[in-house]
Target: Glutathione S-transferase
Amino acid sequence: MLRFYFHPTPNPMKIALFLEEAGLAYEMIPVDTSKGEQHTPAFRAINPNGKVPAIVDPEGAGGREVNVFDSTAILLYLAEKTGTFLGRPEDRPEMLSWLMFLGSGLGPFSGQAVHFQFAAPEGEAYSTNRYRREAERHYQVLNDRLAGREFIMGDAYTIVDMSAWGWLDRAGRVRKGEDDPLGAFPNLKRLFQTIDARPAAARAREIGRDHPFKKTSDEEARRALYPSNYPPAA
Model:
């Protein structure tokens, strides 16, 4: 059975959605990132980068156990293993382009927009504006792409849409202060609502609900989440 290392944040939620959509059996293993559990030697052996999500597949290629980390890599790995949510074979090059656009663009810029609006010290106006505007630019690219298309790849619901859903769910934090954060991007809003209405999305949202993940933003949490902001211990 797959072991799924999880915290209820956007990138792990993409994998939660895929697992529920594909009906794969898995064991959810909580990793409380606000307590620094992502930095333990046991977890670093699975993901040396100390981030969630990660999976361990005991039945990988050749029957050997494999570790996979990074949400984009995990989506690709699971989709290829199961042969699901990959779209048409002839569209693969374009699908990979959109998947990387989300993994290297929308996700990181959205995350930094949230960080500078909610976690950074006061006086970071340039950074706040830079990351928020870039996240919004990515929204517009996707909104334009979706004109006349049901999903990002056309008629087929794929891992590209699942990847987008994870971060679009946090649009209210990315676009802080907006009453309708996706309202300016109607095609994108429609896509999000379509995915969010799927039964698998509702099941994904229930994952980890019974685990007491830390919610307090204190010094321990800041050191766990942003360790590079602090000098190494002498």
User: Anything to note?
Assistant: The beta strands are 2-6, 26-30, 54-57, 66-69. The mean pLDDT is 96. The domain at 2-84+203-229 is CATH 3.40.30.10 (Glutaredoxin).
